[in-house]
Amino acid sequence: MKKLRFLTVFMMLLAASVTSAQNAFEDALAKAKSENKILIVDVYTDWCGWCKKMDKEAYSNKDVKDLIAESFVFVKLNAEGTEKIKYNGKSYTETELASYFEVTGYPTTVFIEPDGEQIEFNYDRSKMKNVPGYFKTDEFKKILQYFKDKKYRDTDLSTIV
Question: What DSSP line would sit under 107-145, residue for residue?
Answer without folding.
Answer: SEEEEE-TTSPBP-EEETTEEESSEES---HHHHHHHHH
